[in-house]
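subagent[fold] <- orchestrator: predict structure for attached chain, return tokens only, no commentary.
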Amino acid sequence: EVQFVESGGGLVQAGGSLRLSCAASGFTFDDNAAGWFRQAPGKEREGISCMSPGDGRTYYADSVKGRFTISSDNAKNTLYLQMNSLKPEDTAVYYCAPCPPGANYDSWGQGTQVTVSS
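subagent[fold] -> orchestrator:
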């Protein structure tokens, strides 16, 4: 069974930084593409960053490009998202999952809440 546990969220002022972590079981980041998704209140979940195994190619949504950095520690089987220059519009619950998760993907974790105050 695949499980993801996200952590590292919190309340931060605009312009601040946070680093999110995602620990996985039943899934290895060095063999599978994975990434970060977020869901803001009243909005659909969106993919914001993905990373491919092996070559480490990355993808960022335009809304976070230049501010967020995805990385992984394969020895710890943990995925990270470094978030800098945070904006109030980054407020959301953040999740990690395979990239792409697939239309019927239902193994979303609890997520971690990020709140950015203005």
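orchestrator: received. Logging for downstream: Strands lie at 3-7, 10-13, 18-25, 34-39, 46-51, 58-60, 68-73, 78-83, 92-98, 112-117. The first strand starts at residue 3 and ends at 7.
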